[in-house]
Amino acid sequence: MSWPIKLRAISFAVTVGVTLTESVMGATPIGLALWYFNVASTAKIFEFLALLVASVSLSISIYSHVRPARYPRRAHTEDAA
Known about the structure:
The protein contains two helices and no strands. It is mostly helical.
């Protein structure tokens, strides 16, 4: 059974938003460290981290929505006793 296209789009958008937020939160300390130690200019750091955040977010989001769903062959039953 497949989801309607509207629900799939909403699910993908939410996943992209969440993974973007997580990636930005993870990349911020890296950017601050690079800026503090004058490794590169602010524009170069921002450009590098924007590409990193976008690629991580899209790779997680696309993989989670493209892979086939795995359904168990039989339901696990528990003893009622």
